[in-house]
Structure formats: C-alpha cells, structure tokens
Amino acid sequence: METFEILTKKRQKKSVKRTILISTVVTILGIGLVLTGFMLLELMAQNNYSRLQDYYFQRVTVAFPNIHLGSHSMRMKNFGGEYKEYLVKDILGVKVPYDELEATYSTSGFNQDHSLEYVRPASLIQDATEMAYSPKKHLKSPLFFNPQAEYGPEDIIRKPAQELSYVSQMKNQLVEVAITFKQRYTFEEIQTMIPKNLKVNWLWIGSETKLNSSKLPLGNLFGWKPRKTYLEQSFNEFQDILNKVYEEREKEKISSEEELLNQDLASFLDEAKEGMSNARFGGVIVTGRAEDFAQLEEMDWIYATSIGISIPNQPYYTLGKE
C-alpha cells in the first residue's frame, strides 16, 4: 500500500500540472483575444480608410470643378493613418498640379480635409473683389455666379466676374475659364455654343433658386466631367452618385442655404431622369489656348466669366480635348 506521504506528493504533482495547464490555456486565450482585438481594430481602421477613399472618389466625380484625383500616398499609424491625394487639373489635356488633399482615418471614422474645400477671396473688403484663390497653393479659382443670387451682409464676393477680356492679353498661355450662362442649357446646346478648339472640361448643374453659388464649398459645387469617348456611361455614373449624395443630404439637418442647394439638386435630378439630353446646366469650365477665347467675347448668352489656372504653352505639350 502507498503511504500517505506518497499520495500527497502525487496529488501535488497533479495539482501543479493542472495549474500549469490552466495557466497555459488562459495565456493562449488571452493572447488570442488581444490579437483578435488588434485585428478587429485594424480592420475597422482599414474599413474607414476605404470609406474615406470612396467618399472623395464620389465627391470628385460629382463636384470639385475640373479637379481630378492624381496619385496618392498613405502613412499608417496604430489603428489609423494619414491619407494624401495629389490633385490635378486638366488644361486642354495637360495635367497641372493642384492643392493636395490631406485627410486622416482611425477606428472611429475619418476626417475630411475641410481646408481644401473653401476658396479664399482676393480681398476681404465686401464688394471689392470677384476673384478667389485655392487655400493651400494660392492658385486662382474659377467661380460661378448664379444670375438669381441674393447676397447677404456676410457675403464678400457679391458681383459677377467679367474676366474674359483679360484672356486675350495672356499671350502663349493655356487657360481655364468658368463661364456662367444667363439661363440653363442642355449639353447638346452647349456643344453648339462653345468653339470646337476649346475643351469642355466640366459642366455646373446651375441653379433655379437664389443660392449664392460663388461661396459654395468645392465639394458642394456639383457638376459633370464629361468623358467624350464614354459620354453616356460617364453621365450615368455622375447621375447615380449624385442621387446618392442627394439622398444622404436629405437625411441631414441643414441650413436654409443648404436647403436651396438641395432644391437645385432635386430639380436637376428630376430632369436627368429623362436622360442626358434633357438635363440642363448653368455653366461650364472651358480650357484652351488664350487666343482661342476671343471667339466668346460679346456672346449674349454669357452672364459671368472667371479665370482659373493658367500655364505657359510649351512646345513639347501634346494638347488634346479628351
């Protein structure tokens, strides 16, 4: 028979083994839970990074006049990171650097680059300017002016720009010009109005309200970038995304000014239901050689003209309308 001492030692050994086993299992489970937690947090951050990219893809597709996504970079941190997009403009087929988009994302969501959206008036004295510049690189921004707009005491820019006559003095340059119409026109009508040697880069949806469009954030200045070889497809994509943006805006609590913008969106989308040929636009961004803009001077359908970016026309550029 085993003695009491031997039995006690066996029990102690079993107890130690059991303790070691339990500790090992708890440790493994703990490490597993920590790793799972880290993976879930990283997954949440990556999901918000994807949402951030998708947000700006959609906004640049339906807003941001003649501004395109270029190349991008990302700097990752723990459970988040910084996202930078190098934006470009298209000046008669030449890609010109614009301001950078700088945003952040984390497990809780993403932060937009609000500083990118607001242009800076050339003067802060009311009624003293009809010009504005980009917020970061101080590049001249093309503005649209609603013919029905009502201006308030807080508005800095209160008068429509008339800058077309300056373009003819910009020798050997490629120029971007925003043209506001006195009334809204269809794309087919606009094509007959704009000279063939100028490029239609972007079409503003215009306004049927009294909204002051000159102070709209670039992300709320809605318009279509037509792709000549895929005209119908690009319009359908624009229409689909614009519908989503409008539906999201309708769910938000908005100001009276935002409500005017929603009315303009609703009006445009109602026309667009009947197809591209029925949708009307209130303005256009056109690019081309400075000397080719002389054909537009004195046109009675023009309400305002605002110069944007301009660059020297170099002999090695391959200029094109697509």
UniProtKB/TrEMBL annotation:
Know the name of this protein? Sigma factor regulator C-terminal domain-containing protein
- Organism, scientific name: Streptococcus rupicaprae
Residue ranges of domain Sigma factor regulator N-terminal in the record: 9-92
* Entry keyword set: Membrane, Transmembrane, Transmembrane helix
Q: Name one Pfam family in it.
A: Sigma_reg_C
Q: Where are the transmembrane segments?
A: 20-41
Sigma factor regulator C-terminal domain location is 169-308
Signal peptide, first to last residue = none
Top-rank taxon, per record: Bacteria
